[in-house]
């Protein structure tokens, strides 16, 4: 398991150039909805491409959004939780015409949106995916779908999601290049390209990209200052359950191999310094830790294309990447191969 950033809700958007879109002159849309158990309140519509946020009042369990959509676009529908935070659990494709939303739960866990050919394709894909519980099987479904549907924007969307974590550059390159040109050039296609570019940059055998970030006392720490040692660049966060569960294995490797020339540079995706420092102390992380306290916007995470944690990159003494995504005992097994 790993903690994934929500790229589908905030960073991806679909741009369509289909014949049907170009021929229609009426670009207006109406999204009507019913939420049983929520007689009043507010619902929010977030447009991923522009980050424009629309709102609609719920009255007698119903709401209406209307506007124009020249081409279909990725959107998320949400509400304000009891804590006051806006949450956007429903991902869908908005396009001209009439769309209908229905949900029996205030949390929208059972939400259904019908209307529009693109949304219908997305709904059918989700129905195929829903019974699958294993992450790798879900990823294989996305892979097969992209191979057999090169003209599908849904295919690009699914690739961007399932290959966001520790993507193999060769595999993703073949899938990306197999998409139709207009899909590759779309907003979502370019999101896939961004993931691919990062995977190529951080592929095994490549020199690790240089960076400098401050430690907990505000002192700048450069990656190059560790040259001459085997270094594990370890991306984690205090709020990430899988990261905290992985930390004992990382501590074990550090204690066993530090005297032999191995060290770790922790990159925290925290945004709360006190919680970050408390986790370091509680988990016994004795190595150098840095963070810009910007959570998923951490500049080093962006540089390395990290969209899911825990994630790590093992470097040799010359600063080249020799392995990545090592979990459990895999780190120690790799150190046995390298350190003499």
Helices and strands in order, then pairings?
Elements: E1 3-4, H1 7-10, H2 19-23, E2 28-35, E3 40-47, E4 53-59, E5 62-68, E6 73-80, E7 86-94, E8 97-103, E9 112-114, H3 117-129, H4 135-148, H5 153-162, H6 169-178, H7 181-184, H8 187-201, E10 212-214, E11 220-222, E12 230-236, H9 241-257, E13 262-268, H10 273-283, E14 288-290, H11 299-303, E15 308-309, E16 311-315, E17 321-324, H12 330-338
Parallel strand pairs: 2-8, 12-13, 13-14
Antiparallel strand pairs: 1-15, 2-5, 3-4, 3-6, 6-7, 8-9, 10-11, 12-16, 16-17
Helix pairs in contact: 4-5, 5-8, 6-8
What does this structure look like?
- With 340 residues, the protein is α+β, with helices and mostly antiparallel strands.
- The chain folds into three domains: 3-126, Immunoglobulin-like (Sandwich); 132-201, no CATH class; 212-338, Glutaredoxin.
- It is 34% helix and 27% strand.
- It contains twelve helices and 17 strands.
- The protein has helices spanning 7-10, 19-23, 117-129, 135-148, 153-162, 169-178, 181-184, 187-201, 241-257, 273-283, 299-303, 330-338, and strands spanning 3-4, 28-35, 40-47, 53-59, 62-68, 73-80, 86-94, 97-103, 112-114, 212-214, 220-222, 230-236, 262-268, 288-290, 308-309, 311-315, 321-324.
- The protein has a five-stranded mixed sheet with strand order 14-13-12-16-17, covered by helices on one side. Strands 5-2-8-9 form a four-stranded mixed sheet. A four-stranded antiparallel sheet has the order 4-3-6-7.
- The longest helix has 17 residues, at 241-257.
- It is globular, with a radius of gyration of 23 Å.
